[in-house]
Specification:
The protein has about 80 residues and is mostly helical. Helix content is about 85%, strand content about 0%.
């Protein structure tokens, strides 16, 4: 999954994808424990997708937090 594709998703879709990828990572760990791993690269892909999703979610929250800090700084300067 590319970051460009992730940025086009809504917040609800991001949450769902995050849950799906976390579930895939858990499934991989269960396969690893039982010794029936099909795709050894699955865990790495899942971890990277989770990181990309969380990064996009944080980027979306950052402008709102930055605006709040700017407003507080302006009030303090008055």
């Amino acid at each position: 999954m590319k970051a460009r594709d992730i940025r086009e998703l809504t917040e609800e879709e991001l949450q769902q994808r995050l849950r799906d990828r976390a579930g895939a990572l858990m499934a991989f760990r269960m396969q690893l424990a039982t010794g029936v791993v099909d795709n050894t690269r699955a865990a790495r892909e899942a971890r990277r997708d989770i990181a990309r999703i969380r990064t996009v979610m944080r980027e979306r929250r950052a402008p709102a937090a930055g605006a709040a800090l700017d407003m507080a700084a302006k009030k303090g300067a008055e």
